[in-house]
Amino acid sequence: MASSSETDLRTRLQGILPKLVLSPSVALTLFFVYGFILFTFWLSFTDSRMVPSHNFIGLENYRRLFRLSHWTIAMTNLAIFATLYIVVCTAIGLTLAIFLDQKIRGEGILRPIYLYPMALSFIVTGTAWKWLLDPGIGLEKTMRLWGWESFAFDWIKDPQMAIYTLVIAAVWQSSGFVMAMFLAGLRGIDNELLKAAQIDGASNWSLYRRIVLPMLRPAFLSAFVILSHLAIKSYDLVVALTGGGPGRATETPATFMYSYTYSRNQMGIGSASAVIMLVTIAAVMIPYLYAELKERS
Amino acid sequence: MARAVTTRTKIGYTIAAWAVALVIFFPILYTIITSLKTEQEAISGFSLIPSFSTQSFSDVQSQNNYWRPFTNSVILAVGSTLLALVVAIPAAWAMAFSPTKRTKDILMWMLSTKMMPAVAVLVPIYLIFLRTGLMDTRIGLTILLMLINLPIVVWMLYTYFREIPGEILEAARMDGASLRDEIIHVLTPMAVPGIASTLLLNVILAWNEAFWTIQLTTTNAAPLSAFIASFSSPQGLFWAKLSAASVMAIAPILILGWFSQKQLVRGLTFGAVK
Q1: Strand partners, A46
Q2: Which residues 207-236 of B are in CB contact (within 8 Å) with A?
Q3: Which chain A residues touch B5 with a CB distance below 8 Å?
Q4: Which is more confident, A245 or A61?
Q5: A69-296: CATH superfamily
Q6: In order of start, what are the domains of chain B with their CATH numbers?
Q7: Residue A273's closest CA among A67, A7, A15?
Q8: A residues 223-282 closer than 8 Å to B (CB)
Q9: What is the ipTM of this complex?
């Protein structure tokens, strides 16, 4: 009798314990992160300006947000930035992965070098980029000192071109990381299949186009999802490199949200822009994460 | 996937790969070179050979008290990581070995918080920090960084724990191992590599964290990221000094990153790339 109740207790304990140890994490995440998101969500429906207010005004902030030219600029910039960033990073990343996949010399040294830009904070590596892009001391001056007098590279000071300097720096930062994703995909492809195709007389080009690239579909999908969420969230990069300038030329939704909430005391509108960003990211990420989880089970 | 290629194409690929590596490494390399120059040299055009002056380093230390932000960075990165592990290890263990119908949803919802742009929750966190006096304190930031990275820590640990075969646990249970034995003798040895990987990844993430540290610190608790950010604005023209400060800020990650490239890729892809 005593022993059976003891086992009973033990099985019950083993049943409850997992839930018990899980709860702190769930509670912390729920309360802090989701609580805060809900708070921001609520603020986006109020007339909060410098401090939070709880005066409900419906969708007014969203209406005003979409009429603001600053927001249009920020969204256009994001569209240009995200498109170029995703396409160029994927192209370079895939190329580098194909290079490294040839069992070339020094792969062990090359891989960390490719990954360094992603591992280091852009707040810090931005220092070198500011030097490079500054016409007075960087690339432009160097080229002129070397005798190419007419060389001009002042994109960072040019409102039309400044957004492309962000693309260059962002591509530099992420290409190696995308390479690692594709390399993992390439290494997962069955060698026998390729040998068979080669024996059948497939050329190198058609081998890649017809067999390798289609098999890399999951890697393409991961790269797309990860890069797009990085693009929407990008804040460090803009702040470190251009600060949103010159003028408002490189304003993105993240810097917009910051300046409207804190410099312009329009907390309601700022919160509305944050909600839009959040929804956009969620629309890209949630289906992907669900698929990721399903695949593994 | 590797195929037989001719030696000539292979040499071509090798040269191309190394050339790209040089381009990628150049900004980092040039920061290191510039840090060894004098201010005069730093702004007088491109040169790969510095005068190996350590002036900038000692200037940064004497004028800006470099050790304070450095110590803060170490405390924040290590402290928040350990704290996150304490909370996350049991949670990940529970989800990996006693999954329920809702486990996946819980994981999803936890991880989805990582997609959120940090600016979106700045208002409430800023207000809480102001009201509780946590502004510009190490303890406040340590807790915050722990909360920010907790979802990714749980997720990473979960994907590592999932790789531990459940049959081993069943076998141990059949052999009469108690829950305590199970955890100490079976689970822990197999879980240590995953935990170490997660720890490494999270230290890097916390070390690089710039948004929150810039917003919520002034001088007292400011780690290196905030230190560099404040350095570049008022003294924007002192390239050599700024470079020296940057080199000191990235040196630990240059070393850690070399050993943890795999974990980094895995963490940043939310486990999609092993």
Answers
A1: A56
A2: 207-211, 214, 224-225, 228-229, 232
A3: 102
A4: A61
A5: MetI-like (1.10.3720.10)
A6: 7-58 (no CATH), 66-268 (1.10.3720.10)
A7: A67
A8: 226, 229, 232-233, 235-236, 239-240, 253-254, 257-258, 261, 267, 270-271, 274-275, 277-278, 281-282
A9: 0.80
Report which DSSP code applies to B46: -
Terminal Cα-to-Cα distance of chain A (whole angstroms): 40
pLDDT at site B235: 47
Helix count and strand count (H, E) for chain A:
15, 0
Please identify every stretch of chain B with a pLDDT value under 50, giving residue numbers as ranges: 2, 234-235
B204 burial class (0-12, 13-18, 19+ CB within 10 angstroms)?
Answer: buried
With CB atoms and an 8 Å threshold, state whether A52 touches B91.
no
Q: What percent of chain A has pLDDT over 90?
A: 17
Q: Which tens digits make up the pLDDT trace of A199-233?
A: 888 787 888 888 888 888 888 888 888 888 888 87
Stretch (H or E) spanning A112: helix A107-119
A65 has pLDDT over 70: yes
The pTM assigned to this predicted structure is 0.83
* CA distances from residue A24 to A27, A143, A244, B14, B88 in whole angstroms, order as listed: 5, 58, 39, 50, 9
